[in-house]
Amino acid sequence: MKAELNEYVTWIRPQRGWRGPDFKELKQYRDLLFFLTIRGIKARYAQSVLGIGWAIIQPLFSTLIFSVVFGNLARVNSDGVPYFIFSLVALVPWTFFSGTLTEASNSLVANAAMISKVYFPRLVLPLSAAFSKILDFLIGMFMMVVFLVVYHMAVDWSLLLLPVLLLILLMTSLGTGMILSAMAVQYRDIKHAMVFVTQLLMYFAPVVYSTSSVPKVYQTWYALNPMVGVIEGFRSIFLHTQQFPWLWVGEAFGVAMTLFFFGMAYFRKMERIFSDVV
Fold first, then answer.
1. CA angle in degrees (0–180, nearest 5) for 78-81-84
2. Global confidence as pTM
3. Residue 60 scores a pLDDT above 80
4. Are 81 and 239 in contact (CB under 8 A)?
């Protein structure tokens, strides 16, 4: 009788130590991941007059402000291209990164009731928060292409390298987002600090200025920030401000991969206490 019962009972026990992600389990819950991603998109734009138009307004107005302050008043070096398109090309990947950090860091706390009532792989929550920002990113990319045409910016074979930059961007965003989401369960200060932190991080990346403005002796260390390789790679592909920065992109890929796998392992390690703490 006990043997027959075990065939229909799934035992859920807390896991200890550092463990890798269970991709088989994530595949089983792919419908939940899809639903939460769609829910995140709808919740952001539901009952909004402009709807997804906000995905255009945010980077566009930020670019206009940067163009006035940094381009016209401060005369920041833009590597020989108009400052408007110089900052816009950087803001498209940066907006995805910063938005993912904000959404993912609050994903567990915002779904506390769901976590405490039913079992599902908790990794679904920060993943869905990140995937829900992909629509905004695609809209931003479309807007960027429009302005590239306006400014008569042509592309060449280097466009084939864009998927590498997108992979680095995704790994960096997901890895950092998973770390912050797990920390936010125990330390609620993370939620309140995210707006300030994302604004501060922007000035540690070449969004409003060029990496060429950083002294060469520090550029290798500076490029350990994965967003440096991503942003300068975007500018190289779309604006031809310099040759493709293989060294910076290589550093970015290594750091992004480390962040991604460490983030997944750290999230899995902390997962067992989420229901009790959240």
1. 75
2. 0.87
3. yes
4. yes
